[in-house]
Amino acid sequence: MSVHAPVPPGATIGFLGGGQLGRMTAMAARTMGYDVRVLDPERLCPARGVSSHTITAPWSDAAAAAELARGCAAVTLEIEQIPRASLEAAARIAPLHPGVEAVYIVQERARQKAWLAANGFPLGAFHTVTDAASSAAAVEALGPSIVKSAMGGYDGRGQIRVRTAAEGRAAFESLRAPVCVVEAFLDIAVEISVLVARRSDGERVAYPPSRNLHTHGVLTWAVTPCGVAPGLAADAEALALAIAERLGIVGLLAVEMFVLGDGSVLVNELAPRPHNTFHHSERAHPTSQFEQLVRAICHLPLGSTRVVRPAAIHNLLGDLWQQGAPEFARALAVPGVRVHLYGKTEARPGRKMGHLSADGGTPEQALDRVLEAYRAISR
Asked: What is the mean pLDDT of the chain?
């Protein structure tokens, strides 16, 4: 079969990852008529109920990755922290999207930032450090900073804010990572993200920027349209498209960005998969990010990304469950609000258990609705 031949409904798609992103993408694939296979380390992973066959194995099990790929017309991923050997094992048997090299570049922060810098994409000041002494020196040079583990450490984990060289040394020792990235604090006016979908023949589309708010490194809410000036939004989309093209992404690429006080735009981080900041795409756009991923990896026409109605989401973390299950009827009483739960069996503090979504006549109304709904279940 040609690399650019469409994969018709009825074929099987394999997912490296059965968390919420895999679950929601698998649901979109099912709606479009595809069968689904999943590999995940957790036996009761969220995507298990949507999958015809679930393989329970660690990401490092290359034989399990190969087993997943057998019988699949395409394989994709919902988490980038998969060892190269497992990616290569799957790619030898079925088309893997995104490809091994793109995932390898993105999955480690120091490698990702070095690639972005080498290719001329705008970044804030950073140092890559490999010991406590170089971490201290980096903070001395950069001033107030964030020390981040180069591998993993998402949703606020593996990150420590520091202001002095001594704190930089202590942070490296505390993180216990062989490589860390020290990033200088920036004068951030607003955080945005752009999502790009790209096919193997180079056809690509970008979703308009989402405006995002993080608390302690974890996304709290996101809204679209983002409210920045049209020219700035166009520049952000062009930047994300250029990065996806240079990486040769097939599938999705989320580009998190900082808009600084002077109006300049810097790249924060990349994610080669569906992204939390575009969960509102199910409400705001004709084509959700989940359906778009299926279209891209199956070489189908990419769907429209225009905003047909403003929408917002608010994350639901496991903290809400510590006193018992939230009363979601209160949230559903707010006009335009939906509840999305991920089917996770253990509600740990800080764990993403679901999200609220809402549409509205304006971005402000959509955001107000999810905030009101969240307050209603937080009492």
From this structure: 96
DSSP element (H, E) containing 159: strand 159-162
For 155, phi then psi, to 5°, come to 55, 40
Please give the sequence-ordered ranges of beta strands (E in DSSP) within 261-351, or none if there are none.
265-271, 311-317, 337-341
126: three-class secondary structure by DSSP? strand
Q: How far apart are CA 216 and CA 220, in angstroms?
A: 9
The closest of 134, 269, 141, 263 to 194, measured between CA atoms, is 269
Spans of all domains in the chain = 12-96, 125-184, 188-377
Encoded amino acid at 2, one letter:
S
Q: For residue 379, what pLDDT is reported?
A: 76
CA distance 281 to 303: 12
Q: Specify whether the CB–CB gap between 263 and 235 falls below 8 A.
A: no
For residue 212, the surrounding DSSP H or E stretch is strand 210-215
Could you report the per-residue pLDDT of 206-236, keeping only the tens digit for each?
A: 999 999 999 988 999 999 999 999 999 999 9
> Cβ–Cβ contacts within 10 Å for residue 263, how many?
12
Cβ(355)–Cβ(315) below 8 Å: yes
357 contacts: CB under 8 Å, gap ≥ 6: 279, 280, 282, 283, 311, 312, 313, 337, 338, 340, 370
Decide: helix, strand or coil at residue 24: helix
Q: Which CATH number fits domain 188-377: 3.20.20.20, 3.10.129.10, 3.10.105.10, 3.30.470.20?
A: 3.30.470.20
Q: Are 189 and 260 in contact (CB under 8 A)?
A: yes
Residues in the chain: 379
244, pLDDT greater than 90: yes
Task: Kindly give, in sequence order, each residue whose CB lies less than 8 Å from that of residue 289, ignoring residues fewer than 6 positions away.
Answer: 195, 197, 207, 252, 274, 275, 278, 279, 281, 282
CB-CB contact of 340 with 332 (8 Å): no
Residue found under tokens 């996770």: 344
Distance between CA atoms of residues 237 and 339, nearest Å:
29
CATH 3.40.50.20 fits 12-96, yes or no: yes
CA distance 195 to 205: 9
* Of the candidates 305, 199, 193, 303, the residue with the CA atom closest to the CA atom of residue 251: 199
Q: What is the CATH number of domain 125-184?
A: 3.30.1490.20
